[in-house]
Specification:
Order of helices and strands: HEEEEEEE
Structural class: alpha+beta
Number of strands: 7
Helix content: 25-40%
Largest sheet: 4 strands, antiparallel
Number of domains: 2
Mean pLDDT: 81
CATH class of the largest domain: Mainly Beta
Distance between the termini: 77 Å
CATH topology of the largest domain: Immunoglobulin-like
Strand content: 25-35%
Radius of gyration: 27 Å
Number of helices: 1
Amino acid sequence: MLQSIGYLKDFTIFTVLKKIVYIFTFIIGLTFTSVAQNKITGIGDTETKLMRCYPIPATTVINFDFQRGYDKSFTFQVFSFIGKKVYEVVNTPQRITIPLDDFYRGFYYYKLLDKNGEFIESGRFIVVK
């Protein structure tokens, strides 16, 4: 009889601890979920970007327009997903149109640099053929 009472005592302590762990895990999960949902990622937020690229996905041409902060001394570069530079414009115009005849299907990244070569902005686009 005494052994069964000790077993029940251990079982209830284990059950209580198990419930505490579940509740703690649930609270942490809710916290991380709410932080992730409230975090501003900048994806799709064209007001914060200097450049806007369209259409996405691109098939024949891709256009880049300056939304704000245009400076002719900027350098604009495009890289393939493996990091190879495939396009570059020094002293960029207000609008850049790139024909995609020599581009393969896939992801590409663009980078905008100031006249000193300092990073200003980057983004990505998809080429679909």
